[in-house]
Amino acid sequence: MAEVIVKDQNFESEVLASDIPVLVDFWAEWCGPCRMLAPVVSAIAEKYEGRLKVCKVDVDEASDVAEKYMISSIPAVKFFKNGEVVRESIGFVPQANLEKIVEEII
Length: 106
Prior knowledge:
By secondary structure, the chain is of the alpha/beta class. It is built from four helices and five strands; from the N terminus they run E-H-E-H-E-H-E-E-H.
C-alpha cells in the first residue's frame, strides 16, 4: 500500500475511520528534517504493511487538519487508533524509536 497522501478532504475517511492503526507524518516540502524522516516513514510503511496504515499530510496543502491537530513544528508524527491520537513524536527520530511506538499500538 505504501504511504497514502492525505488532504483536508479525505483525512476523516483515511485516518479517523481506519480499521487499523495509522501513522500520520505531518511534513512540508521545504522542511529539511521532514526530508530526512521520509525514508524512515517509507521503511515503516513497507515493514508494517497490512498492520499499520501510513499517511502523509503536507501541512501547506492540508492546513485545516494541521490546525485541528495543533501542528506547530514539523516533522510531527501522530499515531491514531480508533480515530484518536494515542502517541506522537516531534522532530526527526531514528526508525527504531518510531518502530517501538508502532509495536506498542498494533
